[in-house]
Amino acid sequence: DSSQGERQRQPDGEARIAEAVRALREGRLVILPTETVYGLAADASNPQAVAAVYEAKGRPSFNPLIAHVADAAAARRIANFDPRAEALAARFWPGPLTLVMPVLDTAAVCDLARAGLDTVAVRAPAHPLTHALLSNFGGPVVAPSANRSGRPSPTTCADAAEETGDSAAVALDGGACAIGLESTVVSLLDEARLLRPGAVTRAEIEAVIGPLAEAEADARRSPGRLARHYAPNLPVRLDAAAPEADEAYLAFGPSPAGARVFNLSPAGDLKEAAANLFGFLRAADRSGASGIAVAPIPHEGLGEAINDRLKRAAGFVG
Ligand code: TXA
Ligand code: MG
């Protein structure tokens, strides 16, 4: 429709940000861009608004949300920031790293946002539009990826609108997400643990705070580690050297072109592959294929996060 067209042409300037801030204050939802993926945002202190986020996503209410803040100063007001958090925030914020810490302000991030836990996941995103939104709003904003629960995360405003747009009062279009994979989630509750591999690699984190322990099997501490997640509609087959007759193919590195071949990175670059991953899963889903075959992806660096998402897209436990 024409308002969608307007939105594409209009630079999302101060007026759009003011409109989004107003919507959040009124308890309504906002689709917002981050450098990782698009989020479906609500005022973290407003239980009704947070409930609307769970409902729009079809997300089980035992899976807590990330509180997004403008900077470390805002994070210190809601969470117990220890020296490891200080070091990681100084190195990676604003940016694609989420820290799980003991919660301090249980009103600013309401119980429902934390799924009743006494901990809170916090991140300061780098996208300029969302940074401006968070600074102007003042308080923490929950923003899970704007997909319906279990589906691939949206990396464009159009994909976000298709997933959960009906529930949002405002959609801020900040272009295609530069990274395309969700933030890395690190728990700092006892030993530092990697709960979700992501855009900041394990090695980059270990360079700052030393070795990471494995995420515990205890699902109450890692509620987001669901087996089938990030999934397209079609079945996904991993480590495929080539597609079968009716399959779409997500290639990596030099590979013959074809009608349903989507090359994540012809040059074999993991950053490029990460940025293309969710959009290509969606495109392959729409291609009329019988299934989606995916080339092997090297496991180093960003490859850990890409393989984590692919495993879950294929329905295997992590
Ligand atoms: O890149 C991102 O992090 C995106 C953008 C929009 O910021 N957001 C995102 O949110 O991926 P979501 O809700 O899709 O994923 C949040 C993850 C889930 O795996 C959830 O279980 C975990 O963080 N999480 C949130 N709070 C937690 C807590 N208190 N303890 C352990 N895990 C938590
Ligand atoms: Mg998500």
Automatic annotation (TrEMBL):
<feature type="region of interest" description="Disordered">
    <location>
        <begin position="1"/>
        <end position="14"/>
    </location>
</feature>
<dbReference type="GO" id="GO:0008033">
    <property type="term" value="P:tRNA processing"/>
</dbReference>
<feature type="binding site">
    <location>
        <position position="153"/>
    </location>
    <ligand>
        <name>ATP</name>
    </ligand>
</feature>
<feature type="binding site">
    <location>
        <position position="63"/>
    </location>
    <ligand>
        <name>ATP</name>
    </ligand>
</feature>
<comment type="function">
    <text>Required for the formation of a threonylcarbamoyl group on adenosine at position 37 (t(6)A37) in tRNAs that read codons beginning with adenine.</text>
</comment>
<feature type="binding site">
    <location>
        <position position="123"/>
    </location>
    <ligand>
        <name>L-threonine</name>
    </ligand>
</feature>
<dbReference type="GO" id="GO:0000049">
    <property type="term" value="F:tRNA binding"/>
</dbReference>
<dbReference type="Pfam" id="PF03481">
    <property type="entry name" value="Sua5_C"/>
</dbReference>
<dbReference type="InterPro" id="IPR005145">
    <property type="entry name" value="Sua5_C"/>
</dbReference>
<dbReference type="InterPro" id="IPR017945">
    <property type="entry name" value="DHBP_synth_RibB-like_a/b_dom"/>
</dbReference>
<keyword id="KW-0808">Transferase</keyword>
<feature type="binding site">
    <location>
        <position position="36"/>
    </location>
    <ligand>
        <name>L-threonine</name>
    </ligand>
</feature>
<dbReference type="GO" id="GO:0061710">
    <property type="term" value="F:L-threonylcarbamoyladenylate synthase"/>
</dbReference>
<feature type="binding site">
    <location>
        <position position="196"/>
    </location>
    <ligand>
        <name>ATP</name>
    </ligand>
</feature>
<keyword id="KW-0548">Nucleotidyltransferase</keyword>
<dbReference type="GO" id="GO:0005524">
    <property type="term" value="F:ATP binding"/>
</dbReference>
<feature type="binding site">
    <location>
        <position position="119"/>
    </location>
    <ligand>
        <name>ATP</name>
    </ligand>
</feature>
<keyword id="KW-0067">ATP-binding</keyword>
<feature type="binding site">
    <location>
        <position position="230"/>
    </location>
    <ligand>
        <name>ATP</name>
    </ligand>
</feature>
<dbReference type="InterPro" id="IPR050156">
    <property type="entry name" value="TC-AMP_synthase_SUA5"/>
</dbReference>
<feature type="binding site">
    <location>
        <position position="59"/>
    </location>
    <ligand>
        <name>ATP</name>
    </ligand>
</feature>
<dbReference type="GO" id="GO:0005737">
    <property type="term" value="C:cytoplasm"/>
</dbReference>
<protein>
    <recommendedName>
        <fullName>Threonylcarbamoyl-AMP synthase</fullName>
        <ecNumber>2.7.7.87</ecNumber>
    </recommendedName>
</protein>
<dbReference type="GO" id="GO:0006450">
    <property type="term" value="P:regulation of translational fidelity"/>
</dbReference>
<dbReference type="Pfam" id="PF01300">
    <property type="entry name" value="Sua5_yciO_yrdC"/>
</dbReference>
<keyword id="KW-0963">Cytoplasm</keyword>
<dbReference type="GO" id="GO:0003725">
    <property type="term" value="F:double-stranded RNA binding"/>
</dbReference>
<keyword id="KW-0819">tRNA processing</keyword>
<comment type="similarity">
    <text>Belongs to the SUA5 family.</text>
</comment>
<feature type="binding site">
    <location>
        <position position="183"/>
    </location>
    <ligand>
        <name>L-threonine</name>
    </ligand>
</feature>
<feature type="binding site">
    <location>
        <position position="68"/>
    </location>
    <ligand>
        <name>L-threonine</name>
    </ligand>
</feature>
<feature type="binding site">
    <location>
        <position position="143"/>
    </location>
    <ligand>
        <name>L-threonine</name>
    </ligand>
</feature>
<keyword id="KW-0547">Nucleotide-binding</keyword>
<feature type="domain" description="YrdC-like">
    <location>
        <begin position="14"/>
        <end position="200"/>
    </location>
</feature>
<dbReference type="InterPro" id="IPR010923">
    <property type="entry name" value="T(6)A37_SUA5"/>
</dbReference>
<dbReference type="InterPro" id="IPR006070">
    <property type="entry name" value="Sua5-like_dom"/>
</dbReference>
<feature type="binding site">
    <location>
        <position position="145"/>
    </location>
    <ligand>
        <name>ATP</name>
    </ligand>
</feature>
<dbReference type="InterPro" id="IPR038385">
    <property type="entry name" value="Sua5/YwlC_C"/>
</dbReference>
